[in-house]
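so the lab meeting is tmrw and i was supposed to have these ready like two days ago... anyway. pasting both below. for each one the top line is the aa sequence and the line under it is the structure tokens. i havent really looked at them closely yet so no promises
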Amino acid sequence: MDELTLIVEQEADGGFVAHAVGQSIFTQADTREQLDEMVRDAVRCHFDRPEEMPKRIRLHFIHDEVLAL
């Protein structure tokens, strides 16, 4: 696998939640720095063999804005 994409959303409390597209990988973190570490750890734990590991991990951040009327 060349690349694995994770969708990342920021929670109301400022933390982050990430889930992989097409794989059963889910993690969360309190800060952006922790998120990188937690994503790498979750991906390593998910794949049994080194040759199955993706070469790159893409974080796709979803950003919602709410406008008042």
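ok protien two:
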Amino acid sequence: MDEAIKKAEVLVEALPYIKKFHKKVIVIKYGGSILGEEKIRRGVLEDIVFLNFMGLRPVLVHGGGPNISDRMRTSGRKAEFIDGMRVTDEETLVVVEEELQKLNDMIVEEISDLGAKSAGLNGKNDKLIQAEKKKAKIDLGLVGNIIGIDPEAVLDILKSDKVPVILPMGRGSDKKAYNVNADEAAAHIAVALKAEKLVLLTNVKGVMRNSDDQASFLSTLTTEEAKGLISENVIQQGMIPKVNACIMALEGGVKKTHMIDARTPHGLLLEIFTVKGVGTEIVK
């Protein structure tokens, strides 16, 4: 009986948040670095299905970097990165799209297995993610800079109470397809959908002042504080595009952004439905 009462108390604690976020869009970016771990992936998808049945409107944007790099390795090709961006020639773009599509299909199928309905979307179709060739000192090939979002296809899926699952590719006015950054895509999509939250699921706890000191974990940051930590080189390497995505989303009107460790059991639910949360929250 005590265990049952505790479960009831947890549900009651979540009630104000369920009411607050009912029918609100929550954009979730799931990093490719943890998509391949079946137990973690299933836990994340269970949370997303729970949000869907609770009346929230989750939208999932996923990466797939490790799968793409593994496929290139097995075919004898070396993955090349400049400032964290994958150099993408035409052959590499084919690999990128094929691997992302495989992951997209898998996620849609697993959400269905968990009892919810979902629909996969390729960002290059229906003008969903509009892009142009990214300008850089060194030619990155078919790497795109996002210049616009048409959310109509996503909104149509949400109206039917399905979970949209989006793979991050864009199309230019030149009719070419472009490889785009998944964090950046999630931020732009969150702004276009006027999302309540943007949540980035990754394989780290969040933002740390000192990566070697767990006590230096930062649970809340403002955009100005986050920009300061980037300029001070406290936030480095792969965390920079994630934090910049949060800043971009907040400046575009998204209310709150979060970075959480997908390895934390039900971390997504804890972040949304409890006072304390589990990751780093970045607010305007």
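from a quick look at the 2nd one: The chain has one domain: 16-121+149-169+179-283. Residues 79 and 92 are 9 Å apart (CA to CA). will dig more after coffe
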